[in-house]
Structure formats: C-alpha cells, structure tokens
Amino acid sequence: MSVPRLACYADSVRSDGRIPCRLCPRRCIIPPRMRGACGTRENAGDRLIANTYAKVAAIALDPMEKKPLYHFHPGRPILSVGALGCNLACRFCQNWEISHPRKNRDDGQWLPPRDLVALLHRHRERQPVGVAYTYSEPLMWYEYVLDASAEVAAAGFVNVLVTNGFLEPGPWQRILRDVHALNIDVKGFDREFYRRVCGGDRDVVLRNVETALEMGKHVEITLLVIPDATDSPDDVAALVRWLADMDPDIPLHISRYFPHYRMTRPATPLATLHRMQEIAMQDLNHVYLGNIPLADGSDTSCVQCGALLLERSGYRVRAVGLDPGGNCRQCGTSANVVFG
Ligand code: SF4
Asked: Is the pTM of this model over 0.90?
C-alpha cells in the first residue's frame, strides 16, 4: 500500500494557501493541489508531500560501469532504481521519458526501503554491491533516498547517487550521510549555458562537488559534450583545472551527445570527443569516453609507469594490473580505485 510521505524542507502554509519548498535552488512556492517544477512534491492543502516516495519507475541490475563509475567496485553489479521527475530543464535531456513525464504522473512499483534491502538479498547469487539511485534525478526522490540509503548501509551494502548535484547545501550534506560514491553530472563550465539551457546554477553544482569531496565521498564526474554548446576547449580546460586543483585522480567521463527531447542538432563527432579527452588529460589522470560504440579510451592505466590496470570491453572489466588495495602491481602507485 502506498502512503505519501511528508516532504522535507518545506515552510509552513502561507495565508494564500501556497507552500514554499526549500529543497533545491528553484525555490518553488507551490499553490494548493499543485506540484513544484520537479513534479515530485505536491501541496496537499496543509502540508507538502513527496508523492513519488517509494515508487520505483525503473529498476535493473546494472554493471557499475554503466552508471558510469569506473573506479568504484569495478566489474560488480549494482541494483539500480529510479523514480519520475527532475528539477533541471535541460533541453537535451537524454532520459526525458522519466525525467520529464506528462504532468501529474507518479506511477511506479511500490518498494519501501525494507523491501529494497530484501531485493538485494534475493539477488545475492549475482553479488550486487549495493543500490544506485539513478535514471532520472534521485535528489527529487529525496525522502526515499534518505530512508533507503540508511537501511541499505545498515545492511552492509553501499549507496551510489547518479545526480545533477543541484540542491541546497543543507539537504545536500544530509543526503550524503549514507552515500558512498557519486557520479555528478556537470553540464558544462559556462554559467550562462547552465542558466539558459538547463535552468540551473553552475556555482551551486560546483560547490556541491567540492562538499562531496570534502566529506570523503568517492566522486566521478560526467560531462556531456554537445556541439556548439559544451565543446569549447577553453571551458573544458577550465573545468578540468578546477577538478585537478582538488584532486587530479578524479575520474572524468566525457560523454557523447545524441539528439533527444528538445535539442535536434546532430550527435557529437567522435573527433571532438577525442580532442576534449586530450585537453582533459593535460590536467587529470583518468579521462574516459562514454556513449560511443567502441570501448575506445575506456581502459585504466597507471599514471606513473603506464601499466594497464583495468581492461574494459563494453561493460566487462578485467583487473589485470591492480592489487587488492587499488594500487599498480608494477610500481605500487595508487589508482584511486575502491574495491570491495
Ligand atoms: S525540489 Fe521540486 S518543488 Fe522543491 S524547489 Fe526544487 S523543483 Fe521546486
């Protein structure tokens, strides 16, 4: 039986019946019986409710590499779940069917936190390492991720967030409490692009990346390279310098854009992706290409001696040159790889 859960971070009802939501920087003020811009939080008259709580719209046992996380439990399966809704409005959204569904949809399979843990145990012959909250925007599933990640961690599994990182600072720190690793989608380094094409604020996302690192979380970054939008060599160089100043071992995934949703320009040429990878590798030690047909540019090598450490073919991975501590077998240099 589905029970709506009280939304976190809501102010009290105003005299005109509207309720301010304080979860993300969009700061919606929601009229009675309406929902915020993300479609996941509804003014029920006297309170704000999280109407996608425990409603799973997509579920699969995925390889960790599909998130993508290349340096966190490589080769292990992870139970991946997602709900409807997102708080950004990217014109190029690659998952728009579930991120931006028709208004007032919140359908999905009812899977409360305890049942999620039970499902992990039921899959134990495949040895899933934990749960990834992914597919649309898990931050808009806030209350469920908060409750579920606590249960999952208490049962000895890991939690992974695949997220746009667009949240107010207090809620962001709180939701990371039981999260072990994140792939954060940094849409680009141009503030105006973030505002105009995504409806977001670049500086909020960058600050949240910094916070996640300060909290000791394993962080990998994805950058979708879109022609004439996020393919400026200067912007990519600035992004990687900012990352490298924090830690040159942060893995960066440069992902190929395809026309989707409200953006029709042609897919990113492969030559552009290789050029961006070259630029990024001037400052970062681990830069990968994603969303391309061949496993080109997806192996992990030792930054010190060049030995092959992780060999990837599609989503299959072989640890050919790493010791169990995540160090190069040949020269002992750390590769920033977390193993189970
Ligand atoms: S979480 Fe949703 S309802 Fe709340 S401010 Fe953000 S977009 Fe608006």
From this structure: yes
| Whole-number Å distance between alpha carbons of 170 and 305 | 42
* Domains, the chain, with CATH or none: 55-298 (3.20.20.70), 308-340 (no CATH)
Which residues are registered as beta bridge partners of 310? 300, 319
Structure tokens at 125: 């012959």
Mutate to test the pocket of ligand 1, among 9, 29, 40, 47 (most ligand atoms within 8 A of CB): 40
Q: How far is the CA of 9 from the centre of ligand 1 (A)?
A: 10
Strands, DSSP E only, in 198-313?
Answer: 218-225, 252-256, 287-290, 300-301, 308-313
Residue matched to tokens 């003014």: 43
C-alpha 140 – ligand 1 centre gap (Å): 8
Distance 241 CA to ligand 1 centre (A): 31
End-to-end CA distance of the chain: give it in Å, rounded: 35
Task: Using the mean position of ligand 1's atoms as its centre, give its distance from the Cα of residue 139 in Å.
Answer: 10
Compute the distance from residue 184 Cα to the ligand 1 centre, in Å.
19
In this structure, the residues whose C-beta lies within 6 A of any atom of ligand 1 are 21, 23-24, 26-28, 36-38, 41, 87, 140
pLDDT in tens, 178-216: 999 999 999 999 999 999 999 999 999 999 999 999 999
CA distance 221 to 337: 15
Helix/strand/coil for 115 = helix
